[in-house]
Design a protein that fits this description.
The chain is mostly helical. Helix content is 49%, strand content 5%. The longest helix is centred in the middle third of the chain and has 18 residues, at 87-104. The radius of gyration is 22 Å and the shape is elongated.
Length: 186
């Protein structure tokens, strides 16, 4: 039975990587939804080092001051899901991260932001950059945690339209005459 013992290192090696973080802005809207200040997001295909690199790459491509890493981690999770379905994408992401480190002459993560961005600009037409950018934009800006960060309340139609959500506060134009609006349906 001692063969069933699974320590943390063996668990992480056998299950892809793990993105870990702590909410930095404990009083923000995301913190109100979070059950704790710490978070973890498991990956099935990519290792932790690749995930850490990708999270910073996404942050450099789509920088938003004050946005928690937890929001960016969902973009990395989307990349991991694509990599788990296609070994070619997994290789593309791993090789892209290795290329960043090679261009940095060591660890790309240890460079300051300006140098990281300069290297990303130099590879902006590469398949790696295009894959990360395209996946991240869809994942990042369709994430409810990002909505909280930006103050976006979501689509209007399931909640009665904008008129009934506080957007009927137009004060810079005179009120239109009553006959300019259709009669409301009952």
């Amino acid at each position: 039975m001692s063969d069933l013992k699974l320590d943390r290192r063996r668990f992480l090696q056998g299950s892809g990587g793990l993105l870990l973080g702590t909410l930095l802005f404990g009083s923000g809207p995301i913190a109100l939804l979070a059950p704790s200040q710490s978070w973890a997001l498991p990956m099935t295909t990519l290792d932790t080092a690749t995930g850490d690199h990708l999270m910073v790459v996404v942050r450099r491509i789509y920088p938003h001051d004050g946005m928690e890493d937890a929001v960016y981690a969902f973009a990395v999770k989307s990349l991991d899901e694509k990599a788990s379905k296609d070994p070619g994408i997994a290789d593309l992401l791993k090789n892209g991260v290795a290329d960043l480190d090679q261009k940095a002459g060591g660890s790309w993560l240890k460079l300051d932001e300006a140098h990281q961005v300069a290297i990303l600009e130099s590879i902006q037409h590469s398949d790696f950059f295009i894959m990360v950018r395209g996946t991240a934009v869809a994942s990042l800006y369709s994430n409810e945690l990002a909505y909280l960060h930006f103050g976006y309340e979501g689509a209007s139609f399931p909640k009665g339209g904008y008129l009934h959500r506080g957007f009927n506060d137009l004060t810079w134009l005179p009120n239109p005459p009553a006959d300019a609006s259709p009669t409301p349906l009952s």
